[in-house]
Structure formats: C-alpha cells, structure tokens
Amino acid sequence: MKVGLTGGIASGKTTVANLFAELGVPVIDTDEIAREVVEPGQPALERLVEVFGEEILDPAGRLNRRHLRDRVFADQDERRKLESIVHPLIGRETMARAAAAGGPYQLLVVPLLFETGMDRLVDRVLVVDCPPQIQLERLISRDNESPESGRRILDAQMDRAERLGRADDVIVNDGDLDSVRDAVTRLHRTYTTLAD
C-alpha cells in the first residue's frame, strides 16, 4: 500500500515523515529525489540550463535552487516549464523506490501530489495542515524569506480548502509535537491494518 503525504510549504511534512520513519515505515521523499535529478552531470540539469540559462547555476556549476525557485514562483509559465522537465523524472524514480522499499506500506512524501497527478498512484492521501499564518512564520524563520516572497509562495500553491477536501486523512501540525506524534501513531496502526 502506498500513502501519499502532502501539504502546503512549511506545513510540517518532514516532521510527520520523520515520525513515520521512526516507526519503521519506508519513506520515499520526492524532495530528495528532486535534488538528485538536478545534480551536475544529470540530464535534467542540462535541460534546465538550456531552458532557463546559465544564470540558474552557482559558481560551482550546481543548481542555485533559491534563484530558480524565486524565478518560477514569480511566473506561472516558467514554473510549468520547470515542472515539465523534472516531474516525470521524479515520478518514475519515486515509484521505482516504492516498489523496492518493502514493508506493509510506504509513505511517499510529495509536496505537489495533486498538482503532478501522483495522487492517482497512491492508495491513500495524508495531508499535513496548519494555518497559513504559521506557514508564513516558518518560511520567514526557516528559509529567510521576506514576508512578501513568503506570501507569493503560499499564493502559488493549491488552495488549502481544496487540498483538505481531497485528503483521506489529515494531521494538524500547528506546533504541538505530542499531538502530531499521537496522530502518526494512530494512522500507522490504521495503515498497517489496511495493508494486510
């Protein structure tokens, strides 16, 4: 069984994924895969340079993720170009890793689960949610975003109500780690039972 874990930026997906991992659940994180497919020498990085230009590289020839992120969040067409290059590669690698992972179920951490259509490839959808103000505060403190750029990033994401409406399960991550841990433990029992 595959559980797709998603949520808005800075909602706490990594915290929840780590709690599942502590319970022995195989976790496949598409953010990690996304970093791997754009390493120097990978075809995706070469294609990104063709499309976006050399200015997306840092002095060492690696992808300057922050520069590219700022650029694509400011322009929907640019974002679509980026997604058309990297999403198919990420999707294929994610499913290959899930097939090899074992366990009664795997947790696939996919920030853009619905936007990429990967929700069709999982058996259940778990959304990590928190109020937008908390997301913004986390973006500012964690990523050193300005309030304006943080709002732009939040505005570019799927509508919160739509994401919640498409969830099978929801964990609220508004700062109380004990309640998040309890929710993960309950869902782990549910998913293990469903997978049998």
Compact description:
By secondary structure, the chain is of the alpha/beta class. The chain is 56% helix and 12% strand. The protein has one domain (2-195): P-loop containing nucleotide triphosphate hydrolases (Rossmann fold).
Feature tags:
single chain; 196 residues; alpha/beta; Rossmann fold; five-stranded parallel beta sheet; 9 helices; 12% strand; globular
What does this protein structure show overall?
The model has no long low-confidence stretch (mean pLDDT 94). It contains 9 helices and 5 strands. A 5-stranded parallel β-sheet has the order 2-3-1-4-5, with helices on both faces. The protein is an alpha/beta fold. The protein has a single domain, classed as P-loop containing nucleotide triphosphate hydrolases (Rossmann fold, 3-Layer(aba) Sandwich), CATH 3.40.50.300. 56% of the residues lie in helices and 12% in strands.
Main CATH class: Alpha Beta
Total separate domains: 1
Helix content: 55-70%
Biggest sheet strand line-up:
2-3-1-4-5
What is the string of helix and strand elements?
EHEHHHHEEHHHEH
- Note the gap between the termini: 9 Å
Based on the structure, what is the oligomeric state of the protein chains?
single chain
- Can you tell me the CATH architecture? 3-Layer(aba) Sandwich
Rg from alpha-carbon coordinates? 17 Å
Helix/strand/pairing category: alpha/beta
Largest sheet: 5 strands, parallel
CATH fold-level topology: Rossmann fold
Helix count equals 9
Coarse morphology: globular
**Any low-confidence stretches, pLDDT <50, length ≥5?**
none
Instruction: Write the CATH homologous superfamily.
Output: P-loop containing nucleotide triphosphate hydrolases
Number of strands: 5
Taken as a percent bin, the fraction of beta residues is: 5-15%
* pLDDT averaged residue by residue: 94
